[in-house]
Amino acid sequence: MILPIYIYGHPVLRKVAQDIDPANYSNLKELIDNMFETMYGADGVGLAGPQVGLEDRIFVVDLSPLADDGHPEFKDFKKAFINAHIIERSGELDSSEEGCLSIPGIHEKVSRESQIRIQYIDEDLQPRDETYSGYMARVIQHEYDHIEGILFIDKISPLRKRMVKGKLANMEKGKVACAYRIKTVR
């Protein structure tokens, strides 16, 4: 089932998500499937719980569609991250353009560390402790920020923030059009 994606201005996007008990979380598998379906319907590569109105510490990432675009390393990279905690960030700062399904129509350069170490529970309820680098690390950090109540626009320069201020104000007023199902504050 495709869920509505919560748009900038909705308070749930600014809340720090809480760890869940995956073994006793009703319909966890269904939620993960719905999050992937919602993400695919919006042409995204990642989606976090707060983006679908949940205060739960969960996000999904699927980079496998990029394998056909010259990135074979992403071939089987489809994962759910439950109760994720980044425990280390390292490497060079890399600046690349990012966008977000909750902030449609805005793309800005964001600097992020090139490598992370993250602990989480996977979809099969197995604990994981993994290290990622490059684009995988960037996407995971973007989604991880969502469960920390942080949006990518929080990481852009003050000048760029002023330049997108009008678009963000319109989103807060519910003035936004998307090709996917959304939920605004209004």
From TrEMBL:
Q: Where is the active site?
A: E143
Write down the top EC class of this protein: hydrolase
Keyword Magnesium (UniProt): no
Q: Which GO terms label this protein's molecular function in UniProt?
A: metal ion binding; peptide deformylase activity
Q: Which Gene3D superfamilies match?
A: Peptide deformylase
Q: Which UniProt keywords apply?
A: Hydrolase, Iron, Metal-binding, Protein biosynthesis
The record's function comment reads: Removes the formyl group from the N-terminal Met of newly synthesized proteins. Requires at least a dipeptide for an efficient rate of reaction. N-terminal L-methionine is a prerequisite for activity but the enzyme has broad specificity at other positions.
> Lineage from the top down?
Bacteria, Pseudomonadati, Bacteroidota, Bacteroidia, Bacteroidales
Indicate which residues the UniProt annotation says bind Fe cation. C100, H142, H146
| Co-factor(s) | Fe(2+)
Xref: CDD domains: Pep_deformylase
- Record-linked NCBIfam families: pept_deformyl, PRK00150.1-3
UniProt lists the family membership as follows: Belongs to the polypeptide deformylase family.
Q: How is the cofactor bound?
A: Binds 1 Fe(2+) ion.
Q: Which reaction(s) are listed as its catalytic activity? A: N-terminal N-formyl-L-methionyl-[peptide] + H2O = N-terminal L-methionyl-[peptide] + formate
Under InterPro entries, the record lists: Peptide_deformylase, Peptide_deformylase_sf
One Pfam family it belongs to: Pep_deformylase
User: What is this protein identified as?
Assistant: Peptide deformylase
- What EC number(s) are associated with this protein in UniProt? 3.5.1.88
List, in alphabetical order, the GO biological process terms annotated in this UniProt record: translation
Organism equals: Proteiniphilum saccharofermentans
